Every structure is written in C-alpha cells, then in structure tokens.
Amino acid sequence: MSDIEQIEAEVLTAINGAGDLAALDGIRVAELGKKGRVSGLMKTLGGMDPEERKEMGPKLNALKNRLGDAIDARKTTLEDAELDARLASEKADLTLPPRPYRTGTLHPVMQVFEEIEEIFGAMGFAVAEGPDIEDDFHNFTALNFPIGHPAREDHDTFFMTPDAEGERKVLRTHTSPVQIRTMMSQEPPIRVIIPGRVYRNDWDATHTPMFHQVEGLVIDKVSHMGHLKGCLTDFARAFFEVDEVETRFRPHFFPFTEPSAEMDVKCDRSGGTVKVGQGEDWLEVLGSGMVHPNVLRNCGLDPNEYQGFAFGMGVDRLAMLKYGMPDLRPYFESDVRWLSHYGFTPWLLPSLSGGLS
Ligand code: DAH
Questions:
Q1: pTM of the model
Q2: For burial by CB atoms within 10 Å, which of 2, 141, 198, 347 has the most?
Q3: Residues enclosing ligand 1, CB less than 6 A?
C-alpha cells in the first residue's frame, strides 16, 4: 500500500469514529493542518524531480480534497445528531397544567350573564346578539331618539372618527339597538334576550366606561303590561333566589317605550348589605316598557297589528347587588386575588332546578 492510500485509510477511519465535533476538529488539525501529516507530504513535493512531482502533485491534492469532504460530511452528521439530542432533551409539553395547579374562576359578570340566560331560557326566550360598533340609526334614531334630543347627550357617547362617507359610528351605549336588528330580521312572535357589552364615557366606583347589559324583547299580537310585570317579577324572584319578592313599577321615561317604567324590588339595607325579599326599602333593578309604536314602525311592523314589551338591565350592577361587591372598578383589573375571592367555579352551570349560584 502506498503512503497515500495508507494515510487515507487511517484518516477516514478516524474521521468516521469521531464521537463529537471537538474530536473531529482535532483530527482535521492533526492531518490537514499546517503541521499535519498531509501537509507534511505536500512539503515533500518541493524536493521531487519534475516527473515525480507531476504525478504526485495531483494525487496529494485529490487526497486533501477527499479528506476535507469526509470531514465536512461527518461534521453535518454530528451537528444533526447534536440538534436531535437537544430537541429531545429540551422539549416542553405545552399541554401540561401550570404548577402549582390552580383552577381559574368564572368572573361574576359571566356568572350573572349565565344566571339571567338560564332564567329567561326557561321562559322560552332565545339569545340574540349585535355589534359593539353601531351606527346612529340603530343606537338612537330607530329607537325614537329625535335628532338633537337631550336623551342622546345623557348617554355620554363614545364617537368613532368619521369614515370616508363622513359617517360617525358609535360604541353602542346600550343593547337596545339589537331590538331594532332583531325586529328587522325576524318575523314576530319574537321573544329574545340580548346580552352584551356597552360603552359610556363615565368612570367612578359604580360606573366603568365599558359595562354589560341584558336587553329583553317580546313582540307578538297580545303581550301587554300585565305580561311585562309578571315576567319581570318572576325574573326578580328567580334571580335573587327568594321565594317571594315584592316589585314596584315606577313611571319613567325612555324614548323607545310608552308607557315606561323602572322596576324596583323590596329590600332591606339595615345591615350594610342589601337583602332582597325583606325589609321596607326599594332597590331599582331595571328599565322596561311597552315598545313605542314609532319603534315598531321604524322596523316595518304595523303598531295596529303588533305590540310587545322590552326591558334592559345592568349586569355589573346586578352582580354587585347579588354578591355584595362594593366597587365596580376591580371588575376589570384582572387581579387574581379578587378573581379567586369573588369568582365562581367554572364547573357548575347555573340551573333553575339545581340552584343558580
Ligand atoms: N336602554 C336603556 C338604558 O341603557 C335600558 C332600557 C330601558 C332598555 C327600558 C329597555 C327598556 O329595553 O324598555 O338605559
């Protein structure tokens, strides 16, 4: 075997046996480096006669190239193996629960939404929804707020910047615009509740710029004020989880209902907390009324044929009353201590038969 063949065989064996990148680099330096064996052979070219040099030069160059290629190939193999090992050892199972294991809680607002949906669901109401960004027509005009009427100002409306056509959309100030959307897209009889977020520019212990309402709408040919009172009194009894509750319907004004009334429930405030179903005080719970003939007309319904009632309630305020939370601002601060104190287990859905809360 010639020198070249012998060196090649030895070096290839060493390269393929190199266990890691450091060992491989050691071989590269020892064989192909300046003081390496192959370089040593190259240096002998200078002392050869021209004929011999002509033969040996290309052979040595080819040897150098073959060994270089073998080192590169081994390097790729070792790098791949190293990456595979890292991927295997560093893998994270994202489906594992965080430690220490902690169950999240249902926000009181979500709990109250679910309680209200359960109560009205049992009475045969379906759930309807609409967009948070509304136009002036649905939020005000179709609901019989005359242009320039002070009731529009009462709502502390957030206006969007005007679009290309100059139209200024609003963040809906109440869930009532979904009454309009429902009447314009469904044939009576209609019986819906509408849960959703609403927005007004107001910020203190009992007002936040975003809050939640549930709207109700019943449209058919027969429903009257007596049905409104019965339906909402039943709701109050179920919601506050008391056997009997006295309600009072106090005349009020809303542009979209006539007559309009606010519903109060009898309560006791003597102990610093509000107890519904006892005592001599009154607590305002919601707004309601018979749908105004103009509103029916704006939705293409003939008020001589159709009638019905509507109501609207503030969910955040109902949650405060029912669960004794004094301040609305922590509702939206995402403080886990508050959430674990006031939150509800996510596993139990409110049910009329099993208990709401
Ligand atoms: N939209 C009213 C508000 O935000 C609440 C309301 C009152 C809704 C009476 C109704 C209603 O549907 O009949 O203040």
A1: 0.73
A2: 198
A3: 174, 176, 215, 254, 257, 287-289, 310-312
Distance from residue 126's CA to the centre of ligand 1 (Å): 18
- The answer to whether the CB of 217 falls within 8 A of the CB of 296 is no
Q: Residue 210: CB partners within 8 Å, gap ≥ 6?
A: 197, 198, 199, 332
Ligand 1 atom 7, closest CA: 287
Distance of CA 38 to the CA centre of its chain: 67
Q: Tell me phi and psi for residue 58, to 5 degrees.
A: -60, -35
Give the model confidence (pLDDT) of 246-273 as tens digits: 999 999 999 999 999 999 999 998 887 8
Q: How far is the CA of 137 from the centre of ligand 1 (A)?
A: 16
Residue 199: φ, ψ to 5°: -135, 130
Measured by CA distance, the residue closest to atom 4 of ligand 1 is: 174
Q: What would the pLDDT profile of 19-57 be if each residue is shown by its tens digit?
A: 999 999 999 988 888 888 888 888 888 888 888 889 888
If you take atom 12 of ligand 1, which residue's CA is the nearest one?
311
Indicate the domain borders of the chain: 4-90, 108-342
CATH code matching the domain that covers 108-342, chosen among 3.30.930.10, 3.40.190.150, 3.40.80.10, 2.30.110.10: 3.30.930.10
Q: What are phi and psi of 139, to 5 degrees?
A: -75, -30
Q: Of the residues 181, 311, 317, which should be mutated to test ligand 1's pocket, given the most ligand atoms within 8 Å of the CB?
A: 311
CB 206 within 8 A of CB 221: no
**What span, in angstroms and rounded, lies between the C-alpha atoms of 92 and 82?**
18
